[in-house]
Amino acid sequence: MNTTKKLAIVTGGGSGIGFAIATQFVQHNIYTVIVGRDEQKLRNACEQLGPGSECYTCDLSDLNAIPVMVDMIISRYGHIDILVNNAGINMKKSFTEVTDEEFQDILQTNVTAVFALSREVVKHQLEKKISGCLINISSMASQYGIPKVIAYTASKSAIEGMTKAMATELSPYGIRINCIAPGFIATDMSAKALESDPERKAKALGRTPLGYLGRPADIGAAALFLASDAAQYITGVVLPVDGGNAIGF
């Protein structure tokens, strides 16, 4: 590996939006470490990404594993320039049926792990005086109310608040923090949800001015832009990539 390349970590990079982001990074000469829980899925993804990538198996809900992973990557490559906090879990369940444990499980992965991983990466970037870039992945669920996803909605609203707070504190040190809020994107996970609920799919498309589901590559392109020098004066933003869904009627 050419150590003068930028190095990125993409969590949840084995499939869907995370894989699309990793693909864009690798294609544009950013060495990319994809992180996830499923080792075989990660290995298959790395084979497709090619020699500009590597995989690291880690359950991010295990907070003790996060500093170990960051130290390993730094010891091997010397630097971490870009972090994409994409990994997350969801649960569709009526509000009154969600247990305390289920609510906390989602917050652990979607919020606490994002905080812990960001903290460890930023510590390194401050120490090395790296002009870093962090990109958080939020959701349209934080923009307006969607039924039966209360824990997920709470977690993504927290992510957007954290993005702004981190940007205010860290941007003076040259570390930019931004957020992408995807709309209805055609991934395996969303396909299952929408195909099993035709009424919900029709409603989603009906209020999307562009009239079709987005592609994971659309989120990948947005992440590449925010990670690039073209966005060097952009920090603290929440960028909807949703075909206009958030402003549709």
From TrEMBL:
PROSITE patterns: ADH_SHORT. It comes from the Bacteria. This is Short-chain dehydrogenase/reductase SDR. GO terms for molecular function: oxidoreductase activity, acting on the CH-OH group of donors, NAD or NADP as acceptor. InterPro entries: NAD(P)-bd_dom_sf (IPR036291), Sc_DH/Rdtase_CS (IPR020904), SDR_fam (IPR002347). It comes from Chitinophaga pinensis (strain ATCC 43595 / DSM 2588 / LMG 13176 / NBRC 15968 / NCIMB 11800 / UQM 2034). Belongs to the short-chain dehydrogenases/reductases (SDR) family. Pfam families: adh_short_C2.
